[in-house]
Design goal:
Layout: H1 2-31, H2 53-108, H3 122-148, H4 151-184, H5 192-203, H6 205-212, H7 215-229, H8 236-258, E1 263-265, E2 273-275, E3 281-283, E4 293-298, E5 301-303, E6 310-312, E7 314-318
C-alpha cells in the first residue's frame, strides 16, 4: 500500500515537471529569432546593396549636365580672350591714328605748318612760359630774392639773367645766320628760308640746346649775379637754386627763339612804373587795385616782334610792396 502511494506521487511530480519544461521551451521559442538553415555557399562578407537603375540614370544625367556647363564656360572664356586681343589691336591702331591726326593738325592750323612733331605746339609753349613765370620765377623770388633784396635788386636779378641768357642764345645762332645771309647776298632772313631753318632746329632742339647752354654757362652766370648781389651768403644751396633757375630760363628763351613765329620778351619794360590794368598785368603777390602804381618785375611776352601781339601778361608788384 505504501509502495503504491510512492509510485503515484512520483508519477504526478514527473508530469508537473514535464509540463513546466514544455511551457518554458515554448516561451523561449516564441521570443527567439528564426535562423535560416545553414548554407555553405553563402558569402559571409558584407556587400552593399546594388543601386537601382533609376538612381544610376539620374547620376549620369547630372554628370552630363555638368560637363555641358563646363564646355559652355570654356567656350565663353575663349571668346572673351579673342575679344580682348582684338581690342588691344584696335587700341594700338587708334593710338597711331591719334598721333597721325596730331601731326596733321600742325598743317591744318595756320602758323604751325613749320613746327616739328617733337617740338611744343604754340599753345603748349604758352603754357610752358606761364608755368615758368608762376612757378620757377616766384619760387626763387619768395625763397631767395624777397628775403634780402629791395625792389631795385629784384628787378636787376630778373632783368640781368634774361639779358645774359638771351645774348648767349643769339650768339649761338648768329654765325649760322650771318653765313647764310652773306652767301645769298641778303640783309635779313625771312619767309620760307627762315621757316626751314627753324624747322631744322626744332627737329633736334634738345641736342642743340645742350650745345647752346652748357653747365659752365649756368655756373658763370650764377657767379656773375652773385658777385653783384651776394645772395644767401654765397651758400651752395642758393647757388644751386640760381643755377636751376638760369637753366630753365635759358630753355624757355631758346624755345621762344626757334618757335614759328618767334616769341619775344619785352625786356626793356622791366622796372618801369605802370598803372595796374588786369587786362595787361598780373600781380606776383597780393592784390593790386585798378590803376594803382606798380612796378614791372617780369616782362610781357609778345608774338613776332617787340611791338607784336601780347600773349603773356607782365607780372608786377605794387610800388609800396613790403619785402621781408
Amino acid at each position: 500500500m505504501q509502495k503504491s502511494y510512492l509510485n503515484y506521487r512520483c508519477s504526478i511530480t514527473y508530469i508537473v515537471r514535464y509540463s513546466n519544461s514544455n511551457y518554458m521551451n515554448n516561451s523561449i521559442a516564441r521570443h527567439r529569432p528564426t535562423l535560416n538553415s545553414y548554407d555553405e555557399n553563402i558569402d559571409t562578407k558584407y556587400s552593399p546593396p546594388e543601386p537601382k537603375e533609376e538612381d544610376g540614370s539620374k547620376l549620369r544625367g547630372e554628370l552630363q549636365e555638368t560637363k555641358d556647363k563646363l564646355w559652355t564656360i570654356s567656350q565663353k572664356f575663349t571668346v572673351l580672350r579673342k575679344e580682348r586681343d582684338t581690342l588691344k589691336k584696335e587700341n594700338k591702331e587708334l593710338q597711331e591714328e591719334i598721333m597721325l591726326l596730331q601731326n596733321s593738325m600742325r598743317e591744318m592750323i595756320p602758323g604751325f605748318s613749320n613746327t616739328s612733331s617733337i617740338f611744343p605746339m604754340y599753345n603748349e609753349l604758352q603754357i610752358a612760359i606761364t608755368d615758368f613765370l608762376k612757378c620757377n620765377c616766384e619760387d626763387i623770388f619768395f625763397d631767395v630774392l624777397s628775403l634780402e633784396l629791395t625792389m631795385e635788386g629784384v628787378v636787376y636779378f630778373f632783368k640781368e639773367t634774361i639779358k645774359i641768357a638771351q645774348q648767349a642764345i643769339n650768339d649761338y645762332f648768329e654765325p649760322t645766320f650771318s653765313t647764310i645771309k652773306k652767301s645769298i647776298c641778303c640783309d635779313s632772313l625771312e619767309g620760307p628760308l627762315l621757316s626751314v631753318l627753324k624747322k631744322s632746329y626744332q627737329s633736334s632742339w634738345k641736342q642743340v640746346f645742350v650745345l647752346c647752354i652748357t653747365p659752365t654757362f649756368c655756373e658763370l652766370t650764377s657767379e656773375r649775379i652773385q658777385g653783384k648781389l651776394q645772395l644767401g651768403g654765397g651758400s651752395s644751396s642758393t647757388k644751386r637754386s640760381i643755377n636751376d633757375y638760369i637753366k630753365k630760363l635759358s630753355e624757355i628763351l631758346f624755345l621762344c627763339k626757334i618757335n614759328e613765329p618767334e616769341l619775344v620778351f619785352e625786356i626793356e619794360s622791366m622796372g618801369m612804373k605802370v598803372q595796374f590794368n588786369a587786362s595787361r598785368h598780373e600781380s606776383m603777390d597780393g592784390f593790386v587795385k585798378h590803376k594803382e602804381t606798380a612796378v614791372v618785375i617780369l616782362p610781357t611776352v609778345r608774338k613776332g616782334t617787340i611791338t607784336g601781339e601780347a600773349v603773356i601778361k607782365a607780372r608786377v608788384l605794387p610800388l609800396n610792396y613790403e619785402f621781408s
